[in-house]
Design brief:
By secondary structure, the protein is of the alpha/beta class. It has two domains: about 290 residues, Zn peptidases (Aminopeptidase, 3-Layer(aba) Sandwich); about 150 residues, Alpha-Beta Plaits (2-Layer Sandwich), CATH 3.30.70.360. Helix content is about 35%, strand content about 20%. The chain is built from 14 helices and 19 strands. A hairpin with a 2-residue loop joins strand 4 and strand 5. Helix 1 packs across helix 3, helix 1 packs across helix 14 and helix 7 runs antiparallel to helix 8.
Length: about 475
């Protein structure tokens, strides 16, 4: 069994979530069309990482639906890296705004590796194929289509709705940081809902769990370096730069950061037992105040669980020496760490320095990290997310999750705005293709997610209305 997530026997239509409402069909068709148009715009590095055409086509849709120029802001740090911020204003706001998030850029796709043209959306066998269909142009299309639907229905929210579509989530995240630093008034909100994660897991063909990402590990990399005067390779000495660095890396690999759970990860493990009962003993060891050492040793082989339970650091790049017949004067390694949001950078760096100090290896940070505190599991936010999901997918469990990767949500949390990430896109957890070959999203899963988001947005912008 793949222990990253439980094995999946197949994919079934989410019958409990299907709707026949004409308005919903119209909205789903619009979302599909917008997604297809976005996929056709190459916003990967081979397309110049240029989001202008994507922004322009969305602006055309919004203006055709009656949105005013004052409600639409296309802006960016560079001419090519354009973001789109759209505000759906409340006539009588009684609460702070709600921020809705997605991103327009995608990772590279090599056409020779694909069975479909990556920058043309292709429907085949119940799937939409194309780069960005899963990550994250589906989210952008769903947000814009639902904004247009609400506008066409004359919906009057009790708070401003803000859609923020960013230009470089897959690379630096500078677009989000820039918007928060230089245009905070455009995107400031009580909290944010992010489409870039939080799938529905189909277990044995059934929608068993909706993952709610409320936390992310923090990314930081270091250079480990050993230096030496060098010399002729015919007269080697005992401690070359490469030898010392190698021993330091072996010790680093053997080091285990302590188990440290936050509200999100503790709740994750408590609820995950029902999803993976075969792992109950190991999970209970992680949750225990005094865990069984043997169980924690086994945890190292369960990469997903291990990455959730503790800070991790791993060597990812290595180089050394300057000539075949010379003793190395320099040996370097890049070590990538993903530390827990409740931890701190100083602790991680001090730990690395202690590990490598016996080998006279230096540690230097490569780029700044962005602290990102976990978003609290607040009932006024978590409850509607859960109730709508359970009304659409009978018996589904909503499980808070700390992402071991990163999204723009990290920067938004860092700016003091809690973020809750939930795509509600059903997928096989052992065949998720974001960033990979033949990226895809299920036709029915996309339609269901579009309807889920319609209900979710209305729930958070209506104080005393019947559930949509």
């Amino acid at each position: 069994m793949n222990k990253f997530l439980p094995a999946v026997a197949g994919i079934a239509l989410l019958a409990g979530a299907q709707t026949s409402c004409a308005a919903e069909d119209t909205s789903a068709n619009l979302a599909r069309d917008i997604m297809g148009e976005l996929v056709a715009v190459n916003t990967a590095p081979s397309g110049g990482s240029d989001t202008r055409k994507a922004v322009e086509l969305l602006v055309r849709h919004l203006k055709a639906a009656g949105f005013e120029d004052s409600q639409i802001n296309a802006l960016g740090q560079t001419e090519a890296l354009q973001n789109l911020v759209v505000r759906y204003p409340s006539a009588n706001p009684s609460r702070p705004p709600l921020l809705l998030m997605a991103h327009l850029d995608v990772v590279e796709a090599l056409p020779a590796d694909w069975n479909y043209e990556p920058f043309v959306m292709t429907e085949d066998g119940g799937w939409y194929y194309g780069r960005g269909t899963n990550d994250n142009k589906a989210g952008a299309a769903i947000l814009i289509a639902n904004l247009i639907r609400l506008h066409n229905e004359g919906f009057e929210p009790d708070r401003d709705l803000i859609v923020m579509l960013t230009a470089d989530e897959e690379t630096t995240g500078n677009a989000t940081k820039w918007l928060l630093a230089e245009h905070r008034d455009l995107v400031d909100a009580e909290f944010a809902l992010n489409t870039d994660g939080g799938p529905i897991l189909l277990i044995d063909g059934k929608p068993l769990a909706l993952m709610l990402q409320t936390s992310e590990k923090i990314y930081v990399s270091f250079t480990l370096q050993a230096t030496d005067p060098g010399g002729h390779s015919s007269r080697p000495h005992r401690d070359s730069a490469i030898s010392r660095l190698s021993r330091a890396l072996v010790d680093l690999e053997a080091y285990e950061f302590p188990i440290d759970l936050n509200e999100t990860t503790r709740t994750f493990f408590e609820r995950w037992i029902s999803i993976a009962p075969e792992d109950e003993a190991m999970i209970r060891a992680v949750l225990a105040d005094k865990p069984d050492p043997e169980a924690l040793d086994a945890l190292l082989d369960e990469h997903y669980y291990n990455a959730i339970a503790r800070t991790t650091c791993v060597a990812t790049q290595l180089d050394g020496g300057h000539a075949e017949n010379a003793l190395p004067q320099t040996a370097r390694a890049v070590v990538n760490c993903r530390y827990l949001p409740q931890s701190d950078l100083t602790t991680v760096r001090n730990t690395l320095e202690e590990i490598v100090a016996p080998y006279n290896v230096s540690v230097s940070q490569i780029d700044p990290s962005t602290p990102s505190p976990p978003s609290p599991l607040s009932p006024p936010i978590v409850d509607p997310i859960t109730e709508i999901a359970q009304s659409m997918w009978e018996g589904i469990e909503v499980i808070p999750e700390m992402s071991t990767g990163a999204t723009d949500g990290a920067y938004v949390r860092n700016a003091g705005i809690p973020v809750y990430t939930v795509s509600a896109v059903a997928d096989d957890p052992n065949d998720m293709r974001a960033h990979g070959q033949d990226e895809r999203i299920g036709v029915q899963a996309f339609k269901d997610s579009n309807y889920y988001w319609y209900r979710l947005i209305k729930s958070f912008t209506t104080s005393t209305a019947d559930a949509p």
